[in-house]
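Sample entry (428 residues):
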Amino acid sequence: MKWKPIETYRAFVFILDGVGDRPVPELNFRTPLEVARKPNIDYIARMGMTGLADMIEPGIRPGTDTGHLAIFGYEPYKYYPGRGPLEAIGAGAKLKPGDVALRCNLATVEERNGKLIVVDRRAGRIKGKDAEELVRALNEAIKEIDGVKVEFHPATAHRVALVLRGKGLSPKISNSDPGTAKEGNPVREVVPLEDSEEARRTAEILNKIIKLSYDVLKDHPVNKRRVKEGKLPANIILTRGAGMVPLDLKSFKERFGVKGYVIAEEDTIIGLAKLLGMEAEIPEGATGDLESDVIAIGKRALEVYETTDTDIIFVHIKGPDIAGHDADYLGKIQIIEKADEMIGYILRNTDENKTVYAITADHSTPCIVRDHSGDPVPIAVKGPKCRIDKVQRYDEVSCAEGMLGKIRMVNLVPIILDLMNKRLKFGE
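Predicted structure, serialized as tokens:
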């Protein structure tokens, strides 16, 4: 018998954001997943392996960012960079391991009794060319502090991303943003949150940057014009949410040996994907709500499958999470059914004998809680010649009986890679 090389496959991972739920009284104590008509999703569960997954560990409530980090196969406790780096990437920053990034607001302050008092944390919601010109002024005036390179990146409206690049930095620092829109709060001094030279140094640098931002912006022509027009000046930056790109962070390709592509409905996920070196996009028609053109998302995913050599395509649908936050159990059922149509479209247009399909979520958002919960999420994985358990439906209760049992979400990508025949052997 002539030896044949092992055939390898490609994969889709469908991420139904916040789809996990708890029994809803109005649904006879069933969940939206149990009620929804979803023949294609159930087909993947029926013809594959199922189980439950803790996003981080039992009872821990994940965010969208930490949940997706786990789906992508990275330990959240070790590799979560914080919101600052994710927003900085979303604003166009090119981050490197060791960089510290922060979320900032262009804000309005007044000098009172030697203190800078916050008048408006959003400077009257400044936006557009005014905001861009002020950020440009900051970049021209503040390039380096104490040997650390400084970059400002304009984001949406009054938001700005700040990046610090250099040795001996730490994200363990406090916010200068007082965290309230009320008048009369002073700009907070940035202080170290741990007893380390790196944290002390970073706090000192941030305090210098904040003071310099006021010196640069208070008499800027844009702000003088805004005052004459009766608008609030944007005369300082307020910082919060410091985070650092882990020094040992490897790209998705380096970590797993395959190429990933992310199609999502949320900037946070796009930023995380790019941080991990994956191509990512929000496709046309994706609005991130219950009215999103889910079929258009599926068509774009299929285009990526047909026109690139991507190994794993992650497809994110935001709607179930929105419905959960709104306690809209009927809307959650409807968006699950729309997602099912999209998954059916991809099933019909791909070769099931050469493709692995997985369905999961980044967390549970129960309608009776109206927020993320620590409940595990159902998972289903179907691939060529894979084992098949006795579970017939994809939902929280049925999948609990599946052969995968209860796993941590960081294990999902290795399971998928094994079914793709692209998992490296450990040992001899």
